[in-house]
Amino acid sequence: MLFIISVLTAVIFLFLFRKALKNHPLIFYIIAAALTAAASMVNARSLPPFVNQYIIGTISRGTLATAFWCAVMWAGALPDGSKLLKVLMPIRGELSIFAAFLTFGHVIALGGRYIIRFFTEAGKLPDDLFTSTLISLILVAIMVPLTVMSFKKVRKKMKASTWKKIQKTAYIFYALIYVHVLTFFIPKARMGREGYFLSIVAYSVVFISYAVFRIRKAYLRSCKRKNSMYNKKLVDGICGLSFAVLMCIPCLSACSEPEKKDDAPAQNAAVTTAVSETTVSETTEAVTEVTSSEPVTSVSETTVSEVTDVSNTETEAVSDAVTASEEKKDPSVEEKKEEQPSEEPKQEEPQPEPEPENQYVYNNGTFTGTAYGYDGDITVTITIENDAITSISGSTAESDPAYFNDAKDHVFGQIMGTTNSQVSAYSGCTYSSNGIMGAVAAALDSARR
To answer: What is the Rg, in whole angstroms, of the alpha carbon atoms belonging to the chain?
Structure first.
């Protein structure tokens, strides 16, 4: 959805400001740099959801920059002599610099923390984040020299042949942008995230059609240079078929089922807990039945023996009572009992009753903890009363709150009423689930007596 909004924004921008961009490019470079700084420094939590999602989000998530890169790359794929080609080609260099400044907003806002973790704790990164971060580093390494060479003063100092050779790396750049998007979006589309399948389709239409049109244009130019005969309808038919086949690849990948391997230990633990709880409950029920059962009046050998045992027990009790009464009459026994009162007060001395609060592990009150989730911090606030969590709430700074929203109901429900922070993770949201559990554990640590 954000990409479609960004494409429409880029189209409106080019329609209104293409001449101004050509005549006064420096102003637009400053605007792009200011937008980059704003997206990198602004506190997303302090903004209204609409502004954060659809304005700042288009910059911080790189969709607006990608839309302008699409305009740059399509300028080289449009048929010769087309009206749109005449609009884009004169501002292609300025447009690429403008897009590069916007790209840095995405790299700093989101890629920065991934890049730091990539070099410090790569093993802890999810597979999709590890791959997308690696691709981002390659993209930046390609983009920086291409952007520098897009300035006219730099271009004039270079040989035309050298400049063209280096500019061919732009094709690798465009392809990696598409791969970067798929690496990040396909896992989310597989989990049924709303809007991600549509985004994959939108990106695929733009990038795959560009590849088909660019190859078509290169082939037709080659035929013209060699004066070779070609059937234009046949070429167009092959291009259309190629587009349809290539479109199936990302769409089928996004529709396949996700692998569920991270939640196996948690699920096994949950099953073990369920089995143990069932066993305990069954044992308790059995004991209750035996304890609460009334004497059965059926005539059987077992019943008769039980009644006999009871009568014998009562007889023994009566004999003990008689013996006790005789002991009362015995003076020696009375003397011994007279000596005992001196010891009895010691036994009956009232012990100070322990304060109820001292027996609890955690203090009553509200406590907050923070832990790292999928790709950002998760903060949880819990309320404890008599060693039981009575309320729990949280928020996330992750780039995609959907992970947190899906995981929180599952994890919160298991933690409520207990002080156990280690529960089963929600399938497909393992990292956010672990972040919630870690935040609860941090809050419990701060509440510990």
So the answer is: 37
CA-CA distances (angstroms) from residue 251 to 8, 120, 186, 187, 208?
23, 34, 9, 12, 12
Cα–Cα distance measured from residue 448 to residue 362, given in angstroms and rounded to the nearest whole number: 4
pLDDT digits (tens, 9 = 90+) for 247-293: 888 888 877 665 544 444 444 444 344 434 444 444 444 434 434 44
How many CB atoms are closer than 10 A to CB 153?
6
Q: What is the CATH topology of the domain spanning 357-447?
A: Sufe protein. Chain: A (3.90.1010)
The pTM (predicted TM-score) of the whole model is 0.62
Tokens 């006790």 belong to 324
Q: At what angle do helices 301-329 and 331-339 cross, to 10 degrees?
A: 90
Which residues have a Cβ under 8 Å from the Cβ of 408 and sit 6 or more positions away?
394, 432, 436
Instruction: Give the orientation angle of helix 169-190 with respect to helix 63-74, to 10 degrees.
Output: 140
CA 293 to CA 44: how far, in whole Å? 64
Start and end residues for every CATH 3.90.1010.10 domain found in the chain = 357-447
